[in-house]
Design a protein that fits this description.
The protein is built from ten helices and twelve strands. With 307 residues, the chain is of the alpha/beta class. The chain folds into three domains: 57 residues, no CATH class; 170 residues, Spore Coat Polysaccharide Biosynthesis Protein SpsA, Chain A (Alpha-Beta Complex); 63 residues, no CATH class. The strands form three sheets. It has a seven-stranded mixed β-sheet with strand order 5-4-3-6-9-8-10. The N terminus is likely disordered.
Length: 307
């Protein structure tokens, strides 16, 4: 049998397109993992170098190696139709090269295309006194999240993905989120794009329930509460500011150029976040707010990311 360094290199090569029949001495349990390539990043096996590896008894420290990668989203109620989920799925599949699952937590699976995994919405004790308005996102921090494990990258249904997303899983940190552009002097993040380890922070949801109606006295919305919870835990961290940009803050032309020129396509951004108005559909068609406020010419370059 080859030494473990050679074996690890072989498995990593297998991920990059080499025929698996070249690696006949790879233990069967590792071959099974390779065939589940849709779930695991095989090259992470390199981490195993220098650690214990007991091939004969199949005991191995692979808990740190085979970390599942999940893209998750949520759809409930009638605000977003299935076309939003379908479009997000297509953008993810075009821009994420590492093995992953795409899971939509929803109360209605009608109209969703093949390839999208669906699960019921996570358990959540609704509180009509504070309204829904995104608070349901906190249910993702249940101790158990359906059959998912590992890392989860949450994406709002109305984001636009421009470039490769692999780095969102490479950055170190227990919790990462966009820095909110509307509150530059506060620690608040924007929860359109955030990453966490599944099942690791159940106290976030527990603390939310404990506060009850009083939560609105200190927190405007779920992303403010979530940011402060993670800050108290000492793990709040933001994405590179070039990766996630705001359509309103970074793409719109200034007055009066906005009446003659369509919004800028932010060339360095990986994800464009839409918050408030215009929505992506409004931006694509052209938008004019009340009294002519925030006039937006038709944003035709969105088509190439939606194709």
């Amino acid at each position: 049998m080859r030494n473990k360094n050679t074996m690890v290199m072989s498995i990593c090569q297998a991920k990059n397109g080499f025929s698996l029949n070249k690696f006949t001495d790879i233990p069967y349990f590792l071959k099974d993992v390779i065939f589940l390539g849709k779930r695991f990043d095989i090259c992470k096996l390199a981490v195993i170098l220098g650690k214990r590896l007991f091939i004969n008894s199949f005991e191995t420290e692979i808990s740190e190696v085979f970390v599942e990668k999940n893209i998750i989203c949520m759809k409930w109620g009638t605000k977003f139709g299935p076309e939003y989920v379908n479009r997000l799925y297509k953008m993810v599949e075009k821009n994420l090269t590492i093995p992953h699952r795409f899971v939509c937590f929803t109360d209605n699976t009608d109209g969703l295309i093949d390839g999208i995994e669906t699960r019921e919405l996570p358990p959540y004790h609704d509180n009509p006194a504070i309204g829904d308005m995104g608070w349901r996102k906190l249910s993702l921090f249940n101790k158990e999240l359906a059959d998912l494990q590992g890392l989860a990258l949450f994406l709002d249904l109305d984001v636009v993905i421009r470039q490769n997303l692999d780095e969102f899983f490479d950055v170190e940190g227990d919790f990462l989120i966009c820095k909110d552009w509307d509150f530059p002097r506060d620690i608040i993040g924007n929860s359109s794009v955030f990453r966490f380890e599944i099942g690791k922070h159940p106290e976030v949801l527990e603390n939310f329930y404990k506060l009850g109606n009083e939560i609105r006295q200190d927190y405007r919305n779920e992303q403010a509460f979530l940011s402060y919870e993670m800050h108290r835990k000492g793990i709040l961290k933001y994405w590179d500011k070039k990766w996630c940009v705001s359509f309103k803050r970074h793409c719109l032309q200034t007055f009066p150029i906005n009446f003659f020129k369509e919004p800028n396509d932010p060339v360095e951004a990986k994800i464009i976040v839409f918050h408030g108005k215009p929505t992506p559909q409004q931006a694509r068609k052209g938008y004019c707010g009340k009294y002519g406020f925030r006039y937006v010419k038709a944003t035709t370059w969105l088509d190439k990311y939606w194709e």
